[in-house]
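User: For a benchmark we're assembling, each entry needs the component sequences followed by a predicted structure for the full assembly. Here are entry 17's components. Please fill in the structure.
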Amino acid sequence: MTDAPLLDVRGLTVEFETDGERLRAVDEVSFAVRGGEIVGLVGESGAGKSLTSEAILGLIPCPPGRVTGEVRLRERNLLALDEAALARIRGKDIAMIFQNPTASLNPVFRVGDQLHEAMALHLAEPRPTLRARAVEILTRVGIPSAATRMRDYPHQFSGGMAQRVMIGMGMSCVPSLLIADEPTTALDVTIQAQVLALIRRLARESGTAVLLVSHDLGIISQMCDRVLVMYAGRVVEEASIATVFRAPAHPYTRALIDCLPRTEATAQLGTIVGVMPGLRALPPGCRFHPRCPIAEPRCTKETPALRALGSGHRVACHLASNGAP
Amino acid sequence: MARQLDVEGGFAPQATTAEPTLATGGLRRWWRRFARNRGAVFGLGVLLLIVVMSVFAPVLAPHDPLAQGVGPPLQRPSLDHWAGTDSFGRDLLSRIIYGARIALVVGVVSVALAMAIGVSLGLAAGYYGGWLDIVVMRAMDALFAFPIIILAIAMMAIMGFGVVNVIIAVAVGFIAPFARVTRADVLAVKEEPYVEAARLAGVSGPAIIVRHVLPNVLAPIIVQAALRVSGAIITEAGLSFLGLGPPPPTPVWGSMIAEGRNFIVMAPHVSTFPGIALMLAIIGLNLLGDGLRDTLDPRLRR
Amino acid sequence: MLRFVLSRFGQTVAVLFMASVMIFAIMRLIPGDPVLMMLGDDFTQDAYQRMRTKLGLDRSIVVQYVLWLGNVLRGDFGDSLLQHERVSILVWDALVPTFVLVLASLVVGMLISVPSGIVAAMRKDSAWDYGSMGFAIFVYSMPAFWKGILLIWIFSVYLGWFPAMGYVAPWKDFADAVWKLVLPALTLGTFFSGLVARIIRSSLLEVLGADYIKAARAKGVRQAALVYRHALSNALIPVVTVIGLQFGALLGGAVLTETVFSIPGMGRLTVNAILNRDYAVVQGTILAGVLMVVLVNLAVDLTYAFLNPKIRVA
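Assistant: Structure for entry 17:
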């Protein structure tokens, strides 16, 4: 791992114009991903994590969206690039896989052709070479009879198989960063573990960094080196996995961990009172304060900034200190 | 739009979800949504205009539409005759106004007739399924295979010409679409829990159909009806144009266009004004139908 | 796929059978005694009886139907009262110009509607969008016969660019045929395009919002390829079914257009036959018309099944 981060996100903000209102879905998000790391981005539905990951690759339609800030990939600001330059980066330097694998494949094209296309767009090698490599990739991700399966259509693949294909497609040009947006949410629990293991294995083998977006803290804990917790469009905590589970500093993070089902016979699953605020009704000050068990008057007025608590540990809370109640 | 089952009898739709249904005050909400579509409002305006023209024709028309020689023949639009005169010296504006009557009557009555028959068939076929469904649907497919004009022409051959026959002929042509649309929705509604509950409660088949199924499939049927009225008017105009409609000298837009065809060079207004009237009516009704579809059928909202 | 094809074929046969019953019923319902009409001045009681027996009119209605169906299947539609010609020949001669007109109209219609629908979808809610969709509604709502007259007035009488009537078979003189077909094909084609443009627009909009387009963009596919290769190949498939559904309307429009432009097709044949009470011809044209619609629908369904991998490769 080098010192300069691979991906450096600074002040990323995503806004939408609808019906005359301007809503801010992602608010000044900053974080960095180093080469080879697996970073998790966790938060409830609607917290803005998917939008953050899509904004990195410029996938947000702009009108009605508006993306500001900086997303540096090795010193180049992706947000300042035009479509053509971005298209060269997508799939090659940064690849992305999505939540619904069968829906992510074009129903009228053969799977082999789509896999071939992913490589042909970026690699200058001759067709037969790429086609052979496509078969190799399918085998490597665990698709049996890869050569025949190349000629099949997406609807002939199960969810788990399709996601393997997507992973293969994403890794086909050996990207520096793989963004995985809820890759297992739509899959059976039994398949989830296999797919996650596949991602981790392939990433480690090629030194690809992974940004894993999920609402499931359990998955994040199995896969990631580091985690970012998002709430209502902002990052509220950032720490290594060990730190987050040993000494979570933000009340929201603590509540999330409490919600994880445990193997001991505890009476009830934890819950967090209330509901994450919608974009039109964001509370003043700290956005979590209406649901926070330790909120003070200060929290309703001043928005807490992300501050360092220790090495690699940042928190956006007025009252946090390492391991404090 | 979930509706509650009222087992006692008497249909009383109750909204169980937040969205009010049409019958319970959703009308105002629906109107606001509808009114935002300017095309649809224009269409509604056109429909109202046609109705007014039809009903108040004797008052609005400056001359007797059948009276020949009220002005020099083939005269261009002038102050005396805003739309000019035709080859018999009849006032074109009056004829156009009276022509709205036939258009409206044929359009509405034929669609109403087709709706009554088609919807009944669709309800029966969809609800009871089985052989009834297969036979009815194949018959509808067969009926659908007849291009409407050709079917209408065939029926006129049997029945002779005239307004009533045009209405029947057009109605027969439109039965199939109504049956199909109704049946498709009935198949979906049939699986809903409240229908199941009614069945278990012992409510008879026809009662279920009328009280529970029908109100829930009404929306797309209304949309179809609105869209078909314009089709009916076009078909009637086409038949009149071919000479198969109400006999002269009845003022009908279609035959007026046909009459004017011979004078297209020296007196284009004879064909043009009825044509414009017809076109406005069709455009208006199509926009109205589109507007209704966009507001009434939630599945099709863009 | 095979199962689908077989079931569609079965359905087609059933529909044709039902339609034949309907046509037979219609023909039988026509008032007037056909035998009397055919004999005309040669009427004698004897001849009447003989003719009735010859035509099978003294047998039961079911037997009559079977005999009739047998004739139809053999291509014998009877003889025209007016033109003393076999109906099947008359119908065939009339079918060709109608078919050519419809085909030309389909081509014109697609040429107008596909770019129009694409532009409207790509620039949604812009002036382009409202403009092309407004135009689409406009031409779709204009009655075909009036549109034809209008086009004649502008392009033929006023500008003198195209002829107001007439038809020449394309294989006899291609240039002349096209020249004569321009106005009629525009008349019918714009009607078709008005319908299809709106469908292409909404279909394309739906496809563009799909996950696989987003995933393809994330792969690095450029905008042009995204729209014209990835999106359109999905969006145009439902359009095929529309052609089938609207073919009946198209045929009806052809009837009117032929009348306006004096094209010797099915329309003119049918209308003249009705006005002259030449019922054998009417029956022939109805049969031909229904057959065309049903066959086109079958072709459309099969094409759709071929284009949609979910059906083609079960």
